[in-house]
UniProtKB/TrEMBL annotation:
One of its GO terms (molecular function) is alpha-1,4-glucan glucosyltransferase (ADP-glucose donor) activity. Residues 400-524 form the Glycosyl transferase family domain. HAMAP family: Glycogen_synth. This is starch synthase.
Length: 599
């Protein structure tokens, strides 16, 4: 156990910028959530060895029948190079885990910046929207062991349209999506389709028998192009495509009257109707698969015919198998509330639909070895460790240092989807002392970035309740301390495809309070009480939220044995990727054994 006075803390060390990219699997796994500066004075070999010895990993129980088929993961973001949310973490883990199982594995993503330690591999000219565009491919090889043949080929697609001073998908300062996103990700998808043949990492191309795994709307055109462009050209006949939905609320919807870039590829200045020919899919059935028409009552202006391109609709209609990130969310996608207008199409594809709960990186998220913590702890030392980390968290964020308060935290995007409005609305009630020995003894930490109305709301509450309520921007170092030092984690999401914070929290002995939806109900046990690891809110309404938060905090203050039992059950739950990859391997085998979904 690390001594509290000598343990390295991330907040005390400045990143000097010398890190230029992952040099090994160990380094990458430990760095996915933030700065690497915290690890510079630590014996990496001992740290990782201890983490691997302690983590609760089950052995693989399924062996693929198609280990000889390479896997090509296509994603608009992948950690640690690009990240706006959980998509980057999940695709990074999938690449590493499938490579570890023995697949030759390529991960393809846009080159948003001049990523260090990448080498130029090849170029390709791609026709799109009426003219030709040259994309360049850069490569980085990441071995899984110091000496070994298993690893991941990271391929980064470079084109001027990906280099933007703002975020990956939109200008954060203006709060609007880039006008040429339809072009940017259509080009990326076509480049990714060509990568297995025109890139030869290590001197050998992947070829035209591969398992494509496309992720979310940004790469949703991949199964469309595979179905309607590649196979008619007698290419990729033996390849298949799995499409993973990480959030069905974002479908890549663009009006047919859309900005497209000029021939020089600089600014999107030409306005024209984007026709199916512009995608290079004329004389195919792609139009019917991609087009969606809003009903009259949802059209926004006089003369609006309601016709839009829906990229995710195209993927659902053409992919060979449809996956999502939890069993609960797979069921919700078939409902009018969770299907976002595509529920009937999902139900038609139910036989080819599966939900696989995401895992977390149990090396990075491990209180036994986490170098961000004032005191590392295991199962036996959890009470002392969490008490030390609670004081550390209170000091770090500006809460009153008080062991007798219950500390409730939130981390995530500041949006209505995450229930941030309900938390802020209930803050006054949590702060008010009404003599019940619960409310008035609650401290609240909220951490995240997002909608300005909620940023202002956090700031207002911080001024109104100094030392009792703190709202801060997302900080990866504080996130580790938050999981260790909090008593409860709030996730009152209106919908949640999977969610990762509730898994990380349980791994640190922090009890989640969640809406019983999507992946939250799949990863937090609320019934029966003797098996519970958290508290569930259903339905999500203000009164029910207060009722469940009160019950949780009352358990903390007045029923410590029940509280500690819930902590312990969550602490020993296995959230590793191993069992999840078994399910992915099964779906890969089923998909490769079947003929193409659209023939």
């Amino acid at each position: 156990m690390a001594d509290r006075d000598t343990d390295v803390q991330a907040a005390d060390i400045e990143d000097d910028g010398s890190y230029q990219g992952p040099g090994s699997k160990k380094l990458d796994q430990l760095s996915r959530q933030g700065s690497l500066s915290v690890f510079r004075d630590i014996d990496m070999e001992d740290l990782v060895k201890d983490a691997q010895e302690q983590q609760l990993l089950s052995e693989p129980k399924y062996t693929s029948n198609n280990l000889d088929v390479p896997v090509v993961i296509v994603t608009s973001e992948i950690s640690p190079w690009s990240k706006s949310g959980g998509l980057a973490l999940v695709t990074a883990s999938l690449a590493l885990e499938l490579a570890g199982r023995g697949h030759r594995t390529m991960a393809v993503s846009p080159m948003y910046d001049n990523f260090a330690n990448c080498s130029y591999l090849s170029s390709k000219t791609i026709w799109l929207f009426g003219w030709e565009h040259e994309v360049k491919y850069f490569h980085m090889w990441q071995p899984l062991e110091v000496e070994g043949t298993k690893g991941v080929d990271y391929i980064f697609v470079d084109h001027p349209c990906y280099h933007r001073p703002g975020g990956l998908y939109y200008n954060a300062q203006e709060g609007v999506e880039y006008a040429d996103n339809l072009f940017r990700f259509a080009l990326f998808t076509l480049a990714a389709l060509e990568a297995p043949c025109c890139c030869a990492p290590g001197g050998a191309a992947y070829g035209e028998k591969v398992m494509f795994i496309a992720n979310d709307w940004q790469s949703a055109l991949l199964p469309v192009y595979l179905t309607h462009r590649m196979r008619p050209m007698h290419r990729f006949h033996q390849s298949r495509c799995i499409f993973i939905v990480h959030n069905f609320g974002y479908q890549g919807i663009y009006p047919c009257n859309k900005l497209v870039p000029n021939p020089e590829g600089t600014l999107p200045i030409i306005i024209k109707n984007v026709d199916i020919d512009d995608f290079g899919l004329n004389d195919t059935g792609a139009y019917e698969h991609m087009i969606y028409q809003y009903p009259p009552w949802e059209r926004s202006y006089h003369g609006d015919d309601g016709n839009v391109w829906n990229l995710t609709k195209g993927a659902v209609m053409t992919c060979d198998r449809l996956l999502t990130v939890s069993e609960g969310y797979a069921e919700e996608m078939k409902t009018s509330e969770g299907g976002f207008r595509l529920d009937e199409l999902v139900k038609q594809k139910e036989f080819f639909l599966s939900g696989i709960l995401n895992g977390i990186d149990v090396v990075t998220w491990n209180p036994r070895t986490d170098p961000y913590l004032a005191m590392q702890y295991d199962f036996d030392s959890m009470p002392a460790g969490k008490a030390a980390c609670k004081r550390q968290l209170q000091e770090k964020v500006g809460l009153h240092v008080d062991d007798n308060k219950v500390l409730v935290s939130f981390v995530g995007r500041l949006t209505t989807q995450k229930g941030v409005d309900i938390i802020l609305e209930a803050t006054e009630w949590m702060m008010e002392d009404t003599g019940n020995n619960v409310t008035g003894n609650i401290q609240v930490l909220m951490m995240g970035n997002g909608d300005e109305i909620y940023v202002q709301g956090m700031q207002d509450m911080s001024r109104r309740y100094p030392g009792r309520f703190v709202g801060i921007s997302f900080d990866p170092a504080v996130e580790h301390v938050m999981y260790a030092g909090s008593d409860f984690l709030l996730m009152p999401s209106r919908y949640e495809p999977c969610g990762l914070p509730q898994m990380c929290a349980q791994r640190y002995g922090t009890i989640p309070i969640v809406t019983l939806c999507g992946g939250l109900k799949d990863s937090v046990v609320v019934e029966p009480p003797e098996e519970s690891t958290g508290f569930g809110i259903l339905p999500l309404e203000f009164g029910k939220f207060k009722e469940v938060v009160y019950r949780a905090c009352d358990t903390y203050f007045h029923y410590p044995d029940i509280f500690e039992a819930m902590q312990s059950r969550g602490f020993v739950t296995d959230f590793s990727w191993c069992v999840r990859i078994d399910q992915y391997e099964k779906n890969i085998d089923w998909t490769l054994n079947d003929p193409p979904y659209v023939r």
